[in-house]
Design brief:
The complex is a heterodimer of chains A (110) and B (112).
Chain A: E1 4-6, E2 11-14, E3 19-25, E4 32-38, E5 45-50, E6 54-57, E7 60-65, E8 70-75, E9 84-91, E10 98-100, E11 104-109
Parallel strand pairs in A: 2-11
Antiparallel strand pairs in A: 1-3, 3-8, 4-5, 4-9, 6-7, 7-8, 9-10, 9-11
Chain B: E1 4-7, E2 10-13, E3 19-25, E4 31-38, E5 42-49, E6 56-57, E7 64-67, E8 73-78, E9 87-94, E10 102-103, E11 107-111
Parallel strand pairs in B: 2-11
Antiparallel strand pairs in B: 1-3, 3-8, 4-5, 4-9, 5-6, 7-8, 9-10, 9-11
Classes of the chains: A mainly beta (110), B mainly beta (112).
């Protein structure tokens, strides 16, 4: 089993709609989590950090459920520019390294 | 402010050739990382460094070597390139491992 798992998608989302997807992690000692956004053939860029139960930044909300070991990302009022691959990342107890999920692809369509 | 710069951006090699990928950061970050990204696999850590003069193995270190002689530079070497090393390579850095990593824009490497 991969340490961080994501549904690869794609999630086809009408413009203006809400989309949510989860990421599960197997290492219960993971300290913190991040959501990165990656556009096609580009480098990953930080979307938001998730240190406690969750975080909200504008149209984006991340929630952490330690009991069930998953993190969710919700995007409200989807824009065409939200089309990207969203990478879930965990930081383990040792702290030096991050573990990346395979990414969830989101396609927002007019 | 350039951030994290990777050189070269593209390269095609023949099997058995050697090359070095350069990562340079101007943010005075302590930690630096080399990842490879293959379709459907996400980013996998090759090697990393927690400070000048230090290196450590990541998840997929075989076939690669690294050096961190200067704090701002982290070099990734392929001594004898193999087709399985065809990938996109990303370098990243961070000052504190509690903080997110900053990525370079990648090196696309093809080995024939």
């Amino acid at each position: 089993r991969k340490e961080v798992e994501q549904d690869p998608g794609p999630f086809n989302v009408p413009e203006g709609a809400t989309v949510a997807f989860n990421c599960t992690y197997s290492n219960s000692a993971s300290q913190s989590f991040f959501w990165y956004r990656q556009d096609c053939r580009k480098e990953p860029k930080l979307l938001m950090s998730v240190y406690s139960s969750g975080n909200e930044d504008g149209r984006f909300t991340a929630q952490l459920n330690r009991a069930s070991q998953y993190i969710s990302l919700l995007i409200r009022d989807s824009k065409l520019s939200d089309s990207a691959t969203y990478l879930c990342v965990s930081r383990g107890a040792a702290g030096n390294k991050l573990t990346f999920g395979g990414g969830t692809r989101v396609l927002v369509k007019p | 402010n350039a951030g994290v710069t990777q050189t070269p951006k593209f390269r095609v090699l023949k099997t058995g050739q050697s090359m070095t990928l350069l990562c340079a950061q101007d943010m005075n970050h302590e930690y630096m990382y080399w990842y490879r990204q293959d379709p459907g696999m996400g980013l996998r850590l090759i090697h990393y460094s927690v400070g000048e003069g230090t290196t450590a193995k990541g998840e997929v270190p075989d076939g690669y070597n690294v050096s961190r002689l200067k704090k701002q530079n982290f070099l990734l070497g392929l001594e004898s390139a193999a087709p399985s090393q065809t990938s996109v390579y990303f370098c990243a850095s961070t000052q504190d491992f509690n903080q997110p990593q900053h990525f370079g824009d990648g090196t696309r490497l093809s080995i024939l």
